[in-house]
């Protein structure tokens, strides 16, 4: 039976970011950290037209700067210099510009494989022990931590277990942690595409009667598409011929980037808002999608998770109590509650407001978009939310 101080269950972007945030101080304190992941990371980054990507807010850039990995990430992170928000068939629109906010970019879009590569390469393997490919099949609460039973028939004990294994966490269910789940009755179509005109760092949020869509700038003049439709219609579009798909998307989006010329592999994801009713227990923390899963249209989910990750690392490093101390974990959660509530509420309200096409609501949101351009304080608040700076100052 081996014993570690901290076990991070899930070596994706959230788990790897937490390991990086802790590794410097862990080395000084003699902490043993293990990162458990069922999928072994590749030996090197390989660019792909169809690579999935993540929108990083400006606040997330600040976190990765503190972790010393931003310069590497920035090599293939496409800056978002402008966000154009519009409502199809109506005049209401607003534009958020980086120069108006005094920042080099409102956010960035990077391929998940590149992000993972940068994070994994920065890890000190003298401090972070990788256990992969394997997974935790069962967790048993102990008086001073948890016992983890692994898929390779080994086990280990830890003072603190961090559950970062995604929104479909079987361990969360096994531990009896209730999840409040609100289905949006939509699915997101995710794909990369190429427009005929340069995107020039523009991101687009376009709201239609059938559901919102976003186009985000990627390297090599590609764009990442997130298109929300009713589940049945999304299924139809996922299997449609390329020309049929592009024609329907063109009609919904318009010609702001010229003709849409190529679309890659299409993926479907059912959309819902999920929130774990417990995020901390003695010796246990839920992070990332295991704690909360948001609608992707406002691009807030991963950025909120990264802020949670940074706040947890700060709380652990500032505490003089043993790892897993419940008061420390409760203090972390209290400090993040406002951020979580405002970000989840912002994402949910935007989704519901722009997925409702009744005449009165449509007219109201049309006026709201026009008002953002006319009221600088309201526009600045909206921009700070989009940049991940809405609820706390980033020093």
UniProtKB/TrEMBL annotation:
Its cofactor is FAD. It is an enzyme of class 1 (oxidoreductase). Its EC number is 1.14.13.-. SUPFAM superfamilies: FAD/NAD(P)-binding domain (SSF51905). Residues 4-337 form the FAD-binding domain. GO terms for molecular function: oxidoreductase activity. InterPro entries: FAD-bd, FAD/NAD-bd_sf, UbiH, UbiH/COQ6, UbiH/COQ6_monooxygenase. Keywords: FAD, Flavoprotein, Monooxygenase, Oxidoreductase. It comes from the Bacteria. Pathway: Cofactor biosynthesis; ubiquinone biosynthesis. Belongs to the UbiH/COQ6 family. This is 2-octaprenyl-6-methoxyphenyl hydroxylase. The gene is ubiH.
């Amino acid at each position: 039976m081996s014993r570690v101080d901290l076990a991070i269950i899930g070596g994706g972007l959230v788990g790897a970011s937490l390991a990086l945030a802790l590794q410097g101080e862990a080395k000084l304190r003699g902490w043993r950290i293990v990162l458990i992941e069922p999928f072994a990371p590749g030996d090197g980054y390989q660019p792909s037209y169809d690579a999935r990507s993540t929108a990083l807010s400006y606040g997330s850039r600040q976190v990765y700067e503190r972790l010393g990995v931003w310069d590497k990430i920035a090599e293939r992170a496409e800056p978002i210099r402008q966000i154009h928000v519009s409502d199809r068939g109506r005049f209401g629109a607003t534009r958020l510009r980086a120069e108006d906010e005094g920042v080099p970019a409102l956010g960035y879009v990077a391929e998940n494989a590149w992000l993972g590569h940068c994070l994994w390469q920065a890890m000190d393997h003298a401090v972070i022990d990788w256990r992969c490919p394997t997974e935790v099949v069962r967790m048993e609460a102990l008086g001073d931590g948890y016992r983890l039973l692994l898929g390779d028939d080994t086990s280990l004990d830890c003072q603190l277990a961090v559950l970062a294994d995604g929104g479909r966490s079987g361990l969360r269910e096994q531990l009896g942690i209730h999840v409040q789940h609100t289905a949006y009755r939509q699915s997101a179509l995710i794909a990369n595409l190429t427009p005929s005109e340069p995107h020039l760092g523009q991101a687009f949020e376009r709201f239609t009667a059938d559901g919102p869509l976003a186009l985000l700038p990627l390297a090599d003049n590609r764009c990442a598409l997130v298109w929300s439709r009713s589940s049945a219609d999304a299924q139809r579009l996922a299997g449609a011929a390329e020309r049929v798909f592009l024609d329907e998307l063109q009609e919904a989006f318009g010609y702001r980037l010229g003709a849409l010329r190529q679309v890659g592999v299409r993926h479907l994801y059912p959309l819902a808002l999920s929130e774990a009713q417990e995020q901390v227990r003695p010796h246990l923390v839920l992070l990332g999608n295991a704690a909360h899963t948001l609608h992707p249209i406002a691009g807030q989910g991963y950025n909120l998770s990264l802020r949670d990750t940074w706040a947890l690392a700060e709380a652990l490093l500032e505490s003089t109590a043993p790892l897993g101390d419940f008061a420390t974990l409760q203090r972390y959660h209290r400090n993040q509650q406002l951020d979580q509530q405002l970000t989840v509420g912002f994402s949910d309200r935007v989704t519901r407001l722009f997925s409702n096409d009744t005449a009165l609501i449509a007219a109201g949101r049309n006026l709201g978009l026009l008002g953002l351009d006319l009221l600088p304080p309201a526009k600045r608040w909206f921009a700070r939310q989009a940049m991940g700076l809405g609820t706390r100052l980033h020093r």
